């Protein structure tokens, strides 16, 4: 499940309105009414410009904080299901970007291998890119392109524990990698990510605190 930065922004707006002793509606009115009827170049007009500039900067920072944490299969987790296409259908329904991460939830009896396109089609682990053998691994999507994941335990991939996904680039991490090209071969690594994985929202708590502080500073101009 994704974490929406716009929801966090709305929450901060509500908190700041309460801190300033007003409602969200009144706060909007105060922002939009500043400077009306004032002569160009007046102190009040300068306040409006500073306020709007600060709000634009805050909006830009929020846009950069939209990395999403996905739990593969949502509440189903990473396991054998009744449908051989369950995980592929789940992946096809998502939108992945550079900086997002995937959490594969399973207790035991499974693993996660990132493999080449050829191995993915054959349910093979001959050309493994990376393997995750500790329960509940978190896989960071660090570059644009296509990723291929399988469960390497005998027979599990054939039963549907496999999925491919396409990761789009973003403004800060452009990529020219064709969508159909698998990730470049890298040395085989064994990942030992922390368990259990943290909540997606907790990763943005410090960012929210910084932005809230910025909004409170802007609010001082309105009082």
From TrEMBL:
The keyword Lipoprotein does not apply. The chain crosses the membrane at residues 52-72, 203-222. Residues 68-169 form the Phytocyanin domain. Pfam families: Cu_bind_like (PF02298). Keywords: Glycoprotein, Membrane, Metal-binding, Transmembrane, Transmembrane helix. Residues 176-197 are annotated as: Disordered. PROSITE patterns: PHYTOCYANIN (PS51485). It comes from the Eukaryota. GO terms for molecular function: electron transfer activity; metal ion binding. One of its GO terms (cellular component) is plasma membrane. This is Phytocyanin domain-containing protein.
């Amino acid at each position: 499940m994704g974490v929406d930065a716009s929801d966090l922004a709305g929450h901060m707006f509500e908190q700041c309105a309460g801190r300033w002793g007003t409602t969200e509606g009144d706060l909007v009115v105060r922002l939009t009414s500043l400077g009306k009827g004032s002569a160009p170049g007046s102190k009040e007009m300068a306040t409006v410009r500073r306020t709007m500039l600060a709000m634009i900067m805050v909006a830009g920072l929020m846009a950069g904080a939209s990395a999403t944490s996905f739990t593969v299969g949502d509440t189903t987790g990473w396991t054998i299901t009744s449908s051989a296409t369950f995980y592929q259908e789940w992946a096809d329904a998502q939108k992945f970007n550079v900086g997002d991460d995937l959490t594969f939830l399973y207790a035991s009896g499974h693993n996660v291998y990132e493999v080449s396109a050829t191995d993915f089609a054959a349910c093979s682990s001959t050309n493994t890119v990376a393997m995750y053998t500790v329960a509940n691994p978190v896989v960071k999507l660090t570059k644009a392109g296509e990723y291929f994941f399988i469960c390497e335990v005998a027979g599990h991939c054939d039963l549907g524990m496999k999925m491919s996904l396409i990761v789009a680039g973003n403004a800060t991490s452009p990529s020219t990698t064709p969508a159909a090209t698998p990730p470049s071969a890298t040395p085989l690594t064994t990942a030992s990510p922390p368990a259990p994985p943290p909540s997606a929202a907790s990763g943005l708590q410090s960012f929210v605190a910084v932005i809230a502080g910025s909004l409170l500073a802007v609010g001082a101009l309105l009082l």
